[in-house]
């Protein structure tokens, strides 16, 4: 019973997360059509990045939905004692709620500086307000929280950790390229920003 409840919670949060992202993508595309802008730096997607993104799609969307709407992965289910199941499940739900807020807030703070691809445009500025005042990559942080929540909400050895396993290679491949691009474009301003913020976890200050 508990696993069914938390599968429903996961599905609701999953739909909300997809809606947030889709809304931001549509808004960015509309803004780009109405503006004439010059791309200062576009790294795009490398040959390695494309399969990594497909791998994330598999672990973040395909496998969890297959698990919820079919019995194909039931052989990998596990069951927790009632009390432990409640604690872990509602912890996962809370983490997912934080992930959704962080995903929405980071898009809102970036505004027109966000684009779906890895690029810097001439009109882009370095955003250091809001959640970006504490961490440099709140969207990546939101996806990590999403991955943890998925592992806690779905009591299945395959569907639960699927996003963690899928997102790690893309994160390791992309975050370094992204920071290098920002350093090349914003120079010392970004270097100073790096010195006072954490990558995905706020930096502790004395």
Low-pLDDT residue spans: none
Total number of strands: 2
Number of helices: 6
The overall pLDDT average reads 88
DSSP strand content: under 5%
At the fold tier of CATH, the topology name is Four Helix Bundle (Hemerythrin (Met), subunit A)
Q: Helical content, roughly?
A: 55-70%
Second CATH tier, the architecture? Up-down Bundle
Task: Describe the structure in your own words.
The protein is mainly alpha-helical and 206 residues long. The protein has one domain (2-196): Up-down Bundle (Four Helix Bundle (Hemerythrin (Met), subunit A)). Helices cover 64% and strands 3% of the residues. The protein is built from six helices and two strands. The protein has helices at residues 2-33, 49-69, 82-110, 138-153, 162-186, 188-196, and strands at 39-42, 119-121. Strands 1-2 form a two-stranded antiparallel ribbon. Helix 1 (2-33) packs parallel to helix 3, helix 2 packs antiparallel against helix 5 and helix 3 packs antiparallel against helix 4. The radius of gyration is 19 Å and the shape is elongated. It starts with a helix and ends in a 10-residue tail after the last helix.
